[in-house]
């Protein structure tokens, strides 16, 4: 455990950021699953827009690397294209 006050604060901030990052990644994975498991074309299209938006926001915030985001978007787009 840290003894210095600033180090203790950094532990708290790191935990808070970890929780935020985990929530964002979970939301992205859920959105991707909704696209992949969508039954109706309209539902799939709206889910695709939501997934793209979440991925782009995570990239801007530094939660995801840009290549990881591109890979997720490519995977989802390919699945939608195959199912159409």
Proper CATH architecture? Up-down Bundle
Q: Mind telling me the C-alpha Rg?
A: 17 Å
Beta fraction: under 5%
Which word captures the global form? elongated
SS-based class:
mainly alpha
Total helical elements: 3
CATH top level label? Mainly Alpha
CATH topology: Methane Monooxygenase Hydroxylase, Chain G, domain 1
Count structural domains. 1
Folded structure, characterized:
With 84 residues, the chain is mostly helical. It has a single domain (5-83), classed as Methane Monooxygenase Hydroxylase, Chain G, domain 1 (Up-down Bundle), CATH 1.20.58.110. Helix content is 85%, strand content 0%. The chain contains 3 helices and no strands. It has helices spanning 5-36, 41-61, 66-83. Helix 1 runs antiparallel to helix 2 (41-61) and helix 2 (41-61) packs antiparallel against helix 3. The longest helix is centred in the first third of the chain and has 32 residues, at 5-36. The radius of gyration is 17 Å and the shape is elongated. The termini are far apart.
What would the keywords be for this entry?
mainly alpha, 85% helix
Short summary:
With 84 residues, the protein is mainly α. The chain has one domain (5-83): Up-down Bundle (Methane Monooxygenase Hydroxylase, Chain G, domain 1), CATH 1.20.58.110.
SSE arrangement:
Elements: H1 5-36, H2 41-61, H3 66-83
Helix pairs in contact: 1-2, 2-3
């Amino acid at each position: 455990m840290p003894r210095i006050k600033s180090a203790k604060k950094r532990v708290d901030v790191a935990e808070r950021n970890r929780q935020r990052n985990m929530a964002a990644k979970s939301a992205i994975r859920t959105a991707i699953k909704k696209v992949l498991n969508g039954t109706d074309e309209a539902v799939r299209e709206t889910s695709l827009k939501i997934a793209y938006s979440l991925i782009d926001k995570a990239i801007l915030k530094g939660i995801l690397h840009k290549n990881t985001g591109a890979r997720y978007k490519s995977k989802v787009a390919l699945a939608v294209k195959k199912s159409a």
